[in-house]
Design goal:
alpha/beta, Pyroglutamyl-peptidase I, single chain, two-stranded antiparallel ribbon, PGPEP1_Glu_AS
């Protein structure tokens, strides 16, 4: 991290099912317009809703950028608040993706831990954003849903020793606009970066590649 600069990678998902416009990618594009300040190099990527693409793409993002933080964003039709996911799970992937594929073993990483927690204290991030004056509601969850959202999160957590995050957003206008979601993401990521910065010098920054 030269001169205190940080590299952050943020992904959103492409269309799937009835989500012909995926709110997660709209929110990430809004975040890209806003940026994270002059000291943060922000890279965004749209991810197809496909297990095999995720399996190859996520390691390549870590390898290419060596980021301090990767945040994956996905849409949840059931969500009415912006949801910070605390952990990713390795098993239970039985739902077919956009290519009508699911892992034959129904798991993400053979021999991996059943569950990996993020090193980020999501409760603290949630509390700070909820009291920051932004007109959005943020909550915390321990179940990212055993589909591509959970799958990409677990894989990133596995590759980064927990230095990843996942944010679920509601569908557009239910109740937030893309612009509101973008501003919320920006506030959430800045809190996460501040928290990680306070932990600098610990092994949170010693990623395995």
């Amino acid at each position: 991290m030269d001169n205190g600069r940080k590299t952050v990678v943020v992904t959103g998902f492409g269309p799937f099912g009835h989500h012909t416009v995926n709110a997660s990618w709209v929110a990430v594009k809004e975040l890209e317009q806003l940026g994270l300040g002059p000291d943060v190099d922000l890279h965004v990527h749209e991810v197809p809703v496909e297990y095999q693409t995720v399996q190859s793409l996520v390691p390549s993002l870590w390898e290419q950028y060596h980021p301090q933080l990767v945040v994956h964003v996905g849409v949840s039709g059931a969500a009415t608040a912006i949801t910070l996911e605390k952990c990713g799970r390795n098993r239970g992937y039985k739902r077919l993706d956009n290519s009508s594929f699911c892992p034959g073993t129904h798991c993400c990483v053979e021999g991996g831990a059943d569950c990996i927690d993020s090193v980020i204290d999501m409760e603290t991030v949630c509390k700070r954003v909820n009291t920051s004056g932004l007109d959005v509601s943020v909550t915390v969850s321990k179940d990212a849903g055993r589909y591509l959202c959970d799958y990409i999160y677990y894989l990133s957590l596995h590759l980064s020793s927990g230095c990843s995050a996942f944010v679920h957003v509601p569908p557009l206008e239910q109740p937030y606009s893309g612009e509101e979601l973008g501003h919320a993401l920006r506030a959430i990521l800045l809190e996460m970066l501040e928290q990680l910065g306070q932990d600098r010098g610990t092994n949170h920054y010693e990623h395995r590649h």
